[in-house]
Amino acid sequence: MISVSNISKTFGDLPVLQDVSVELHPGKVNFIIGRSGCGKSVMTKCMVGLLETEHGKIEYDGRNFTTMNRTQRREVQKEIGMLFQGGALFDSMTVEQNVQFPLMMFSNMNVDEARDRVNFCLKRVELTNKNHLYPAEISGGMKKRVGIARAIALNPRYLFCDEPNSGLDPQTSIVIDNLIREITYEYNTTTIVVSHDMNSVIEIGDRINFLNQGRLWWSGDRADILRTDNKELNDFVFASGFMREIRENLRK
User: Fold this and answer.
1) What domains sit in the chain, N to C, each tagged with a CATH number?
2) Which of 39-43, 104-108, 213-217 comes out lowest in average pLDDT?
3) Cys bridge to 24: 2, 32, 212, 246, which one at CB 3.0-4.6 A?
4) What are phi and psi of 91, to 5 degrees?
5) What is the 3-state secondary structure (H, E, C) of the chain?
6) CB count, 10 Å around CB of 95?
7) Is the pLDDT score of 242 beyond 80?
8) Which residues are bridge partners to 219 per DSSP?
C-alpha cells in the first residue's frame, strides 16, 4: 500500500497541493481524477520522487519515502513501474530493446535472462514476435502495450499509469483498460491511474480519488461515484451526456 499523509506542494506563491491524504491499495486499480491543473500530476511526481513536498509524508508499505536519501529512494524506485502518457518509447530502439532497458539499468540479469523476461512480458501484452519492430512501425495501441511490457519488466509492486488511453480509439482503450486491470489483480500490484477518461474510471476503477483545487475532495468506488451528491464531482463526472445517461438509468 502507498500511504500519502497531509502532503502540500507550492510553486512560488501558488499552492498546488494542500494537505492531501490518500491511501492507495494493493490489488486495486486506484484512480486519481480531476480537472486540468488540480494537482494530479504534481501529486504523482511527488510520490515517485520527481518533486519534493513541503509538508507531509509518503510511505511505501510502511517505508517513509519522504525522509529517505537518494540511495534509499532508488531501492524503492526499482519497485515502481511507469506507463507514460505518450508511451515514451525510444525511437532508435526496437520493441525488445525498449522493454529490456530497465532490466539493463536496474537488474543483474545476463543477456539471456533479460531476453527471456522481455519475451515473457511481450507475451503477457499479446505482442509475441514483435521484438524486432521499431516504434515507428507499430500502432498507438501497440506502443501503449509495449509501454506496459516495459513497466512490468522488473515485476513492480507499484504501477503508475499516466493517461494510459490518451490518443487511443474506444476499442483500443478497452484493451488497455482490461490489461491494466488483469495485471493489477494477477500480481497484486498497487496500481495508480491518472486519467480524464470516465469510461475507464467506471469500467475498472476500484478506488477513485477526486482532486479539486489542490485538495482531496472525494474518495469512493465506482458504484459510489454514480450516486454521489458531491456537486463538484458531479460537475466533473457528468459533463458528458453519456455519463448522465448511465446515472439516470441506474436511478430508474
Assistant:
1) 1-63+161-221 (3.40.50.300), 80-155 (no CATH)
2) 104-108
3) 2
4) -60, -30
5) CEEEEEEEEEECCEEEEEEEEEEECCCEEEEEECCCCCCHHHHHHHHHCCCCCCEEEEEECCEECCCCCHHHHHHHHCCEEEECCCCCCCCCCCHHHHHHHHHHHHCCCCHHHHHHHHHHHHHHCCCCCCCCCCHHHCCHHHHHHHHHHHHCCCCCCEEEEECCCCCCCHHHHHHHHHHHHHHHHHHCCEEEEECCCHHHHHHHCCEEEEEECCEEEEEECHHHHCCCCCHHHHHHHCCCHHHHHHHHHHHC
6) 26
7) no
8) 209
Residue 168 corresponds to which cell in the numbers above? 487511443
**Nine-digit cell at 54?**
513541503
